[in-house]
Amino acid sequence: MHDLRLVREQMHLLRDGFARRGKLDTLGPILDRLEGLERDRRALITAVEDRKARRNTLTQEVAQKKRAGEDAAAQVADSRSLGEEIARLEADLSATESTVSGLMLELPNITRDEVPAGDESHNALIREWGTPRLDATVRPHWEVAAELGILDLARGAKVSGTGFIVYRGLGAKMVRALINLMLDTHTTTHGYEETWVPLVVNRTSMTGTTQLPKFEDDMYSLHGDDMFLIPTAEVPITNLYRDEMIDAAELPKALTAYSACFRKEAGAAGKDTRGLLRVHEFDKVELVRYAAPDTSLAELELLTGHAEAILKLLELPYRVLLLAAGDTGFGSSKTYDLEVYAPGVGKWLEVSSCSNFGDFQARRMNIRYRQTAGEKPRFVHTLNGSGLALPRIIAALLEHGQQADGSIAIPAALQPYLGTARLG
Predict the structure, then answer these.
(1) Phi/psi of residue 3, each to 5°?
(2) Contacts of residue 280, Cβ cutoff 8 Å, sequence gap at least 6
(3) I need a surface site. Which of 147, 287, 339, 418 has the fewest CB within 10 A?
């Protein structure tokens, strides 16, 4: 959420930022309405304060008259009238503030200056690692996995519906192996504290990390309860410190967790639905960092490097893209996407988004720190990234590792966890 002072004092920053996202036509009317409502809000505050001051003066006059034995009926009547007017004004103020708060939740973050303007066609290639396997003989992962008996798409659809996956045998063990490799690397090598978090969160938590209200249609909610299945462990991890003051000595703070993730992805119907490319329930290891504002950019580079380290361990060629403003997520100020090449489908597949949210999430969640005693509290900066999401990683491993005899070569780093060097 933005500081309301931007609406009042620096509206041009919001308009410029939304223009860079290509959203000014949509969000411009909201900004216009907010400007008017903010003027009304401040006028109502002034009116309430003025009438309360007048009522206080009348109260003093009434007391003086009563002490002097004089008639104070007129002042009492005026005071009562002012009280009724104050009640009406405060009701109007409360309604206005509620409307302003609701509209503020609809505004996305402003991307940083170094983020390219425009849509996804303006995403910038930052670096590449490894050599993509460009081989027309490589088969798509769903065919190979079915033959190996490690992926059962049909029964997953029967049990739950399209987009839900059943892994079997070594496929199930591969999921567990990848999770353990990632968590062990992030905790032992990268210094993250491992957490185990709930898969169900409340509306306040989802609003704090910006999934709500914008993306409610994409979320799985629990009927009869205002609760949601998490779309990512980012939600419970980041909300652990909601409404808390973090000790500055603890920053940067780094947390990781494995969780199942649940997303309807209603807007993606019919897109990349084969195999493991787009599913509604998936496994992911998440990375979250809390940082002081002056270090958060460096923290983003560090976090991105931690996600890249897993790809290197898995020997998967990948590239890093700096997303353009129009392709950057709602709450993010700067995002790097990590994409692996899957030769069987002939595509680059996103396996991680690493984002710096600035203080955008922290304002919603009221997560602050104080650098020194007596200093005014400041909002922390929050960052997160996938470290990594498993389905497309598994797809890439099954395609990139295909051998002439039909077996799948397993990267050396994963072999101790999986207990084999080959599948098939």
Answers:
(1) -65, 130
(2) 161, 163, 164, 262, 263, 264, 265
(3) 147
Name the band, by pLDDT with cuts 50, 70 and 90, for residue 270.
Answer: low
Cis amide leading into 116 (omega within 30): no
Helix (H), strand (E), coil (C) string for 147-212: HHCCECHHHHHHHCCCCCCCECCHHHHHHHHHHHHHHHHHHHHCCCEEECCCCEEEHHHHHHCCCC
Stated pTM of the model:
0.94
Phi, psi of 356 (to 5 degrees): -105, 120
> Helix, strand or coil for residue 279?
coil
Q: Amino acid letter at 67?
A: R
Instruction: Determine the distance from the C-alpha atom of residue 141 to the mean position of all C-alpha atoms in its chain, rounded to a whole number.
Output: 29
Contact of 208 with 242, CB cutoff 8 Å? yes
Report the alpha-carbon distance of residue 348 to residue 396 in Å, rounded. 9
Residues 211 and 351: their CA atoms lie apart, in Å, by: 19
Angle at CA 310, nearest 5°, toward 306 and 311?
115
Question: Which H or E run contains 348?
Answer: strand 347-356
Segments making up each domain of the chain, as ranges: 4-104, 120-423
Q: Are 256 and 406 in contact (CB under 8 A)?
A: no
pLDDT band at 358 (very low <50, low <70, confident <90, very high): very high
Query: Under DSSP, is residue 316 helix (H, G, I), strand (E, B) or coil?
Result: coil
Say which CATH class 4-104 falls into. mainly alpha
Q: What is the pLDDT of residue 83?
A: 96
* Cα 38 from Cα 41, distance rounded (Å): 5
What CATH topology corresponds to 120-423? BirA Bifunctional Protein; domain 2 (3.30.930)
Task: Identify the H or E element spanning 124.
Answer: strand 124-129
- ∠ CA 214-215-216, nearest 5°, is 105
Q: Does pLDDT of 267 surpass 70? A: no
CB atoms within 10 A of CB 244: 13
Tokens 């739950």 correspond to what residue?
A: 160
Q: Average pLDDT of 336-365? A: 97
